[in-house]
Design goal:
By secondary structure, the protein is of the alpha/beta class. The chain is built from 20 helices and 16 strands. The relative contact order is 0.11. Bound molecules: S-adenosylmethionine.
C-alpha cells in the first residue's frame, strides 16, 4: 500500500509497536465475550434478530480483536483489517493458535477506500481507530455506506475532557524528546514519570492507566504520533454528518446517559449534552463507545424475550459445550462490559437458558435478548455553535497574579462552563455541585487531595474558585515565550536540576519557554492558581 501523511506515520508506529501487547497464549473463555455477539449487538441497537451467518468487518483490528470476535461469533464471516501488517500477523497467529479459522485478514488503510474489503457488513467494529485518522468524518461516512440496512457500527473514540491527563503526558514526552521511534524510550519515559512525587496527578494518571505496564501500551497512549479526543458534541456532529444515529451506549451504568440524566436533572436534554457533562466532570470513567445505525435504518424492533444464543442448546464447539456444562452444574460469574458488576449465573438459570427459556432470575440481565426497548430515550443531539470558542478559552494560557494553573485547565473548564456558554442553560455552579452531591464519585484519595476531579477540587477550594469566577476575564498570552513565572530564574533552575538528575531524559538542551512549561507540568501540582506574568 502506498501512503502518505498521517497514514504513513500511523503505519510506522503500529508496525514497530503492534497493539495491544498481549501474550499469544492469553485465552478468552468462550462464555465471556457474549456482548460482542452480532445477535446481542443487533438486539441492543434495535435491529432485531441477527443474520444466521453475519458478515463482520473489524476496521483497525490490532492484534487481539479478531480472536475475541471469532470466539464470540463462531458462525460469522469475519474480515479483520489493519494498516499494520505486523499487527495482522500477530492477530493471525493468535487465531491459528486458538483454532479460530473463520477470520480473513487484509491490510487496509481506512484513509483510502480503494483498499477496503468488498460488500456490505452486518457489523462494523471501529474501536479506538477514528482518532488516528486525518479525516475521521470521511472515513465514518464511508463505513456507513458499507453497513447493511439493519447493520450496526460499534465505534470507540477517546473523550476530550477525560483524556486531558494523557494529552498532558504526551506533551511532557514531546518536550523531553521521548518518541516512538526509539525502542528504549517507552521504558525510559515510564522510569521518568515514576520519579514524580506520589501525589502528582500525572504520575497517578500514568500508573493507573492499565496499558502503561507494557511498552506498546506506553507508545499507544503517551508517545503516540497523533491522536486526539472528541467532545460528546463533536461526536454528535460526526455521527449526524455521516448519516448515523446512536442506538445503544456500550457503557457501564455510571456512564449510561439516561441513568445519569435522570439523576442530574437533565432528562429532557440531548444525549450529547449529558455525555459531555459526565466527561467534563471526570465522571464518564470510560471512552465513548456507541452502537450506531444508519439514520435510514428500519424502525427499532423489540423481540420477545429470549436467551442469548451462545447459552442455548448444545450445538456448539466442544470447548464451548464443556464450559456450558460446567455453568449448568456449578453456576458461575460472567464479566460484563455493560453492567456494573459481573453477572451471577446460578446453575438452574444456566440450564433454563440451555432449554431456550428466559429465566426470571436473569430478568434485566445482559444474558437475555428482547423484552425491552433499550434504545436511547434522550432527545437527539443538536449542534452547539458556541463550543469551539469554549474549547479555545479552556486551552488559553491566562496570565495574572492568580491565574488558573494550566495543569488544571480542564477543571476550570467545568467551573466556568455555565458562565461561558449561557446558551446551554446549565444551572449555576452551586446548583450543579448540589446535584452532583449524591452521585459524584471523586477520584481523589490519599495521597492526592485534589486536582483529579472538579467535584473534589471545588470542595477543597470553594472560596478561591468563587473569587476567581467573580473576577473580570484575565488577559491571555500567546504561548510560553510570552510568560514569566514567579521567581522565574529559580523555577528554570529547578527544572534544569530535575532533568540533570534524570539520565533517561533524551533532550539535553531546552529553551526557556519549554522549561517554563515543564515547570508547570512537573513542579506546580500543589497550586491551583499560579502567578504568571505577561512580558508584552
Ligand atoms: C489503538 S489501536 C486499536 C486496535 C484495536 N481496535 C483494539 O481495540 O484493540 C489503533 C489501531 O488502528 C490502526 N490504524 C491506525 N490508522 C489506521 C488507518 N489509517 N487505517 C487502518 N488502520 C489504522 C492501527 O494500526 C492500530 O492497530
Amino acid at each position: 500500500m502506498a501512503m502518505v501523511g498521517k497514514s504513513a506515520t500511523m503505519r510506522a508506529q503500529y508496525t514497530a509497536w503492534p497493539y495491544p501487547q498481549l501474550p499469544l497464549l492469553a485465552g478468552l473463555p468462550s462464555t465471556h465475550p457474549f456482548e460482542l455477539h452480532v445477535d446481542w449487538l443487533w438486539d441492543r441497537a434495535g435491529s432485531g434478530p441477527g443474520p444466521a451467518r453475519p458478515r463482520i468487518w473489524l476496521a483497525g483490528c490490532g492484534t487481539f480483536q479478531p480472536y475475541a470476535f471469532a470466539v464470540a461469533n463462531p458462525h460469522a464471516e469475519i474480515t479483520a483489517t489493519d494498516l499494520s501488517e505486523a499487527s495482522l500477523a500477530i492477530a493471525g497467529r493468535r487465531c491459528q493458535w486458538h483454532r479460530q479459522r473463520h477470520v480473513r485478514f487484509a491490510p487496509v488503510d481506512l484513509e483510502d477506500p480503494a483498499t477496503w474489503p468488498c460488500g456490505r457488513f452486518d457489523l462494523i467494529e471501529c474501536y479506538g481507530v477514528l482518532m488516528n485518522l486525518a479525516d475521521p468524518q470521511a472515513t465514518l461516512r464511508g463505513l456507513r455506506e458499507r453497513l447493511t440496512d439493519n447493520g450496526v457500527l460499534r465505534l470507540m473514540v477517546y473523550p476530550h475532557w477525560s483524556r486531558q491527563r494523557v494529552f498532558q503526558l504526551q506533551r511532557l514526552a514531546r518536550l523531553l524528546g521521548f518518541t516512538a521511534e526509539q525502542r528504549q524510550h517507552p521504558a525510559a519515559f515510564r522510569a521518568f514519570v515514576r520519579r514524580l512525587p506520589r501525589n502528582h496527578p500525572l504520575r497517578f494518571a500514568f500508573t493507573t492507566y492499565a496499558d502503561s505496564r507494557n511498552d506498546a501500551g506506553v507508545v499507544d497512549a503517551f508517545l503516540h504520533g497523533g491522536d486526539r479526543g472528541f467532545t460528546a458534541f463533536q461526536l454528535g456532529d460526526l455521527l449526524a454528518a455521516a448519516g448515523l444515529q446512536p442506538d445503544y451506549w456500550f457503557h457501564r451504568p455510571w456512564a449510561q446517559p439516561e441513568a445519569m440524566a435522570a439523576r442530574l436533572g437533565f432528562a429532557d436534554r440531548p444525549w450529547s449534552l449529558v455525555l459531555d457533562h459526565l466527561d467534563l466532570w471526570q465522571e464518564l470513567r470510560t471512552n465513548f463507545i456507541v452502537c450506531a445505525r444508519r439514520t435510514d435504518a428500519p424502525p427499532r424492533v423489540v423481540q420477545p424475550p429470549r436467551p442469548h444464543p451462545a447459552f442455548v442448546g448444545m450445538d456448539h464447539a466442544l470447548r464451548h459445550r464443556l464450559r456450558l456444562l460446567r455453568l449448568q452444574w456449578l453456576g458461575g460469574k460472567l464479566p460484563a462490559r455493560t453492567a456494573a458488576e459481573a453477572i451471577a449465573v446460578p446453575a438452574g438459570a444456566a440450564r433454563a437458558l440451555a432449554r431456550g427459556e428466559a429465566p426470571g432470575e436473569l430478568a434485566g440481565s445482559a444474558l437475555l435478548l428482547g423484552g425491552t426497548d433499550r434504545g436511547i430515550r434522550l432527545p437527539a443531539h443538536h449542534p452547539e455553535p458556541g463550543e469551539a470558542a469554549f474549547l479555545a478559552a479552556a486551552a488559553a494560557l491566562r496570565i495574572g497574579r492568580r491565574a488558573p494553573n494550566p495543569l488544571y485547565a480542564h477543571l476550570f473548564a467545568a467551573f466556568e462552563r455555565d458562565r461561558r456558554q449561557p446558551e446551554l442553560a446549565l444551572p449555576d455552579l452551586e446548583t450543579q455541585m448540589g446535584r452532583w452531591l449524591p452521585w459524584a464519585d471523586p477520584l481523589e484519595q490519599r495521597p492526592i487531595g485534589f486536582g483529579l476531579s472538579p467535584y473534589a477540587t471545588n470542595q477543597r477550594f470553594r472560596i478561591n474558585i468563587r473569587e476567581h469566577l467573580e473576577r473580570e476575564p484575565l488577559p491571555t498570552a500567546a504561548d510560553w515565550s510570552a510568560v514569566r513565572l514567579r521567581q522565574d530564574e529559580r523555577a528554570l533552575g529547578t527544572v534544569r536540576s530535575l532533568l540533570a538528575a534524570a539520565p533517561e531524559v533524551p533532550t539535553t538542551t531546552l529553551d526557556d519557554a519549554s522549561l517554563r512549561e515543564l515547570f508547570v507540568l512537573l513542579c506546580s501540582h500543589d497550586q491551583l492558581f499560579l502567578n504568571l506574568e505577561g512580558t508584552s
